[in-house]
Amino acid sequence: MQPSSHFEGDKFQNATVTYGSGNLIPSATSHYGGAVYAGTSTLGNTTYKNKLILNGGQDYKWRKIYGGYTQSQTGDSTNNEVELRSFPTGTLTNHSNIYGGWSEQGDAINNTITLNGTGDISTTYDPYNYANLHGGGGEQYVKRS
């Protein structure tokens, strides 16, 4: 019998995760500081074609939300999506940060946020109560010519 090794890693591509009334988001005190994501990589893989679907009605206060979340020192985040479904007007606030894709050290390319049946994100200006929507992001910003 040949010796073998098995490593169960993160789901980093082609994942679709839906949160709503029947499947609540993990608590903010869970692993990764309460980050919510569809696909993630901690070992250098590129997060690719992951989709996170959020149905309105839950509290996303202070949360970081990602379609694809590349946490490692290598790897990009490409073609990921967060879809916001049926959020009533003014409910997506409280300092939440939403990224179609995020790469800690690599590039974030072609990531999107889709508003599907969602009203105005916020109906009044309040500098202490807001949501940030980003197609892509990362710690290392590089301007390319």
Can you walk through the features of this model?
- About 0% of the residues lie in helices and about 35% in strands.
- The chain has no helices and eleven strands.
- The strands form three sheets. The protein has a four-stranded parallel beta sheet with strand order 1-4-7-10, with no helix packed on it. It has a four-stranded parallel beta sheet with strand order 2-5-8-11, with no helix packed on it.
- It is globular and about 35 Å long.
- The N and C termini lie far apart (about 55 Å).
Question: Helices and strands, in N-to-C order?
Answer: EEEEEEEEEEE
Strand tally is 11
* Overall pLDDT score: 77
Helix content: under 10%
What is the strand content?
A: 35-45%
Structural class: mainly beta
| Integer-rounded radius of gyration | 16 Å
Order of adjacent strands in the largest pleated sheet: 1-4-7-10
Please tally the helical runs, counting DSSP H or I stretches of 4 or more residues. Answer: 0
Q: Which consecutive residue ranges, at least 5 long each, have pLDDT under 50?
A: 1-8
Distance between the termini: 55 Å
| Main sheet summary | 4 strands, parallel
Shape: globular
